[in-house]
Amino acid sequence: MLCFAINLLLLIFGEDFYIYGLILFPIYAAYKLYCYFVSTNSFIKRDAETFKGDLVITTLIFEDHITVTAPNGSVVELEYDKIKKISATKNYILIITKARLIYILKKDGFTKGNFEEFTAFIKNKGINIKK
Hints:
Layout lengths: L1 H11 L6 H32 L7 E4 L3 E5 L5 E5 L3 E6 L3 E6 L4 E5 L8 H10 L4 E2 L1
Parallel strand pairs: 4-7
Antiparallel strand pairs: 1-2, 2-3, 4-5, 5-6
Helix pairs in contact: 1-2
């Protein structure tokens, strides 16, 4: 990117520039963007083929841990001391662990209680929710 910027400035000021310095960075950026979309589409197709219908992930909140059950039947028990931080967006709650895993909950997806009660419960555990 630095090479691209320098060569672009040289071109603008009418100096000699290295043409490959202007071409390689946009090609590399386009390639990385292409790889991102191909891998994302591949994941979506795999999930659609493996799990017919909507993907349903069940999350249970207990006094000492959180249990996440995936559509394939795998169960993860997450203790509160392994949570690095919790962030809230407009529609979702992101639980980020110290191992950099992210568990996503819908704010309106609670079957017992609601987001405000969850926030109060989590604060009692010593974890703040960043909005």
